[in-house]
């Protein structure tokens, strides 16, 4: 159902995925994963930090979903950055997930200096086949430039906060120019951008919800996006965005809603980076 994107390493990734942040107990997990899988989601996004990798892995077992039918992302948390700790933590994640590999492994946050060692571990994990693709999360342009000075291969995905109140145009342009797929976390601004009047007007015109309008905007921008919900009707709604399209004017209206407003943390821009660049 979701479009497939081809990553710079040649692997394919569904453009739309399912976010598992704050989906915790096994029953809620199973219900959410079941609903999402039935509605056609194939990408499932977790992280060490979410503390739910074991529940994610168990859900696929309980629901009899075969490994080759899904695309699984996890992220190495700040606490596990560094060469050996990253490797050990990924092996631990795989155990919890009951999997031999993840499809996409991300550095969760840019931590100065540490991400060079973490990245070396990622290149190694990819060689060993424990991660099919490797990328980063919450990296700003300066972090990517810094990483490029030492990396043997560059990230193929950069997952960042992205929604109509934080459109990140310069970063999107940089990612695109460097063959890095941008992936939106909190594509719906954690639900906080759903009542914007301009979006309600567009939604009414198309007979869709504002959530569907926002996801369609992500789709037409060519970025990957991973909405989260624990409600089956919303999970379904968020996958039902392939039967209409936004006009260039409507896209522009949504682009114009940017307020540089983050719902989450600001990625660090330390003296060290500023000094280097
Ligand atoms: P819930 O899980 O209770 O459905 P994001 O993906 O940007 O982080 O946003 C997720 C938030 O938005 C969650 O709080 C989720 O709540 C809510 N949400 C997800 N999809 C929809 C939808 N279609 N309509 C309204 N709220 C939604």
What is bound: which ligands?
adenosine-2'-5'-diphosphate
CATH superfamily of the domain at 10-190 and 223-228: NADP-dependent oxidoreductase domain
Secondary structure: helix percent: 40-55%
Low-confidence stretches: 273-277
Task: Characterize the biggest β-sheet.
Answer: 8 strands, parallel
User: In order across it, which strands form the biggest sheet?
Assistant: 3-4-5-6-7-8-9-10
Series of secondary-structure elements, N-terminal to C-terminal:
EEEHEHEHEHEHEHEHHEHHH
Strand content range: 15-25%
Named CATH architecture of the domain at 10-190 and 223-228 = Alpha-Beta Barrel
| Helix/strand class | alpha/beta
- Sum up the overall morphology in one term: globular
| H/I helix tally | 11
Could you tell me the radius of gyration in angstroms? 18 Å
Number of strands: 10
CATH class designation of the domain at 10-190 and 223-228: Alpha Beta
Mean pLDDT: 95
Distance separating the two termini: 43 Å
Stated plainly, the CATH topology of the domain at 10-190 and 223-228 is called TIM Barrel
Domain NADP-dependent oxidoreductase: 25-258
Organism: Limosilactobacillus urinaemulieris
Protein name: Aldo/keto reductase
Keywords: NADP, Oxidoreductase
Describe the structure.
There is one protein chain. Strand 7 (131-137), helix 5 (141-148) and strand 8 form a beta-alpha-beta unit. Helix 7 packs across helix 8 (210-221). It is globular, with a radius of gyration of 18 Å. The protein has a domain at 10-190 and 223-228: NADP-dependent oxidoreductase domain (TIM Barrel, Alpha-Beta Barrel). It is 41% helix and 16% strand. An eight-stranded parallel β-sheet has the order 3-4-5-6-7-8-9-10. It has a two-stranded antiparallel sheet with strand order 1-2. The protein has 277 residues and is an alpha/beta fold. It has helices at residues 26-38, 53-62, 83-97, 114-127, 141-148, 169-177, 197-206, 210-221, 232-239, 248-255, 271-276, and strands spanning 4-6, 12-14, 17-19, 43-45, 71-76, 102-107, 131-137, 157-161, 181-185, 224-225. The site of adenosine-2'-5'-diphosphate has 18 residues, from helix 9. It comes from Limosilactobacillus urinaemulieris.
């Amino acid at each position: 159902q979701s479009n497939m994107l081809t990553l710079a390493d040649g692997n394919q990734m569904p453009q739309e995925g399912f976010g598992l942040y704050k989906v915790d107990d096994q029953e809620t997990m199973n219900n959410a994963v079941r609903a999402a899988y039935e509605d056609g989601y194939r990408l499932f996004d977790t992280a060490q930090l979410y503390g739910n990798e074991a529940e994610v892995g168990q859900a696929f077992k309980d629901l009899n979903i075969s490994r080759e039918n899904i695309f699984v992302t996890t992220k190495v948390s700040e606490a596990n950055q560094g060469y050996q700790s990253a490797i050990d933590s990924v092996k631990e994640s795989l155990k919890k997930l009951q999997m031999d590999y993840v499809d996409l492994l991300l550095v969760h946050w840019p931590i100065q200096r540490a991400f060079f060692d973490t990245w070396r571990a990622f290149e190694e994990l990819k060689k060993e086949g424990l991660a099919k693709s490797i990328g980063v999360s919450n990296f700003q342009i300066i972090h990517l430039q810094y990483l490029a000075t030492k990396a043997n291969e560059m990230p193929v995905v950069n997952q960042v906060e992205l929604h109509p109140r934080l459109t990140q145009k310069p970063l999107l342009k940089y990612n695109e120019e460097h063959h890095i797929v941008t992936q939106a976390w909190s594509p719906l601004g954690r639900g906080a951008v759903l009542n914007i009047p301009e979006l309600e007007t567009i939604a009414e015109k198309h007979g869709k919800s504002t959530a569907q309008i926002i996801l369609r905007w992500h789709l037409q921008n060519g970025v990957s996006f991973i909405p989260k919900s624990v409600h089956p009707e919303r999970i379904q709604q968020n996958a039902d965005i392939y039967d209409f399209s936004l006009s260039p004017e409507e896209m522009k209206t949504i682009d114009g809603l940017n307020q540089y407003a983050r719902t989450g943390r600001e990625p660090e821009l330390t003296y060290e980076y500023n000094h280097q660049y």
